[in-house]
Design brief:
With about 110 residues, this protein is of the alpha+beta class. It has a single domain, classed as Roll (Ubiquitin-like (UB roll)), CATH 3.10.20.
Length: about 110
């Protein structure tokens, strides 16, 4: 299990224990973390699971693949540390990961 901290736009913190092999998006949805809409269910076909990866974790989560980069074009307020949470697979190396949820997903 890896601990993931989700920080909502209003500052509310959600600490979730996530199973390895799942995605950051799946764990947010499963635990009713507000702000992650995940309209496509994790198929990398929308941008409604957009998160900002904490700067200390950008290297550990890796770079977005071309398909994810294309979908990020549809997200609002994209930043250099923007990722789609459906594309971040939980591993032991991500224990302690911190992501912030943008004000809007649409």
């Amino acid at each position: 299990m890896a601990k993931i901290t989700y920080i909502a736009f209003n500052g509310t913190v959600y600490d979730i224990e996530a199973r390895e092999g799942t995605t950051v998006m799946e764990n947010a949805v499963r635990n009713s973390v507000p702000g992650i809409e995940a309209e496509c269910g994790g198929a990398c076909a929308c941008a409604t699971c957009h998160v900002y990866v904490d700067p200390d974790w950008v290297a550990a989560t890796g770079e977005p693949q071309p398909m994810e980069e294309d979908m990020l074009d549809f997200a609002q307020d994209v930043q250099p540390n923007s990722r789609l949470s459906c594309q971040i697979r939980v591993t032991a190396a991500l224990d302690g990961l911190i992501v912030r949820i943008p004000e809007s997903q649409g």
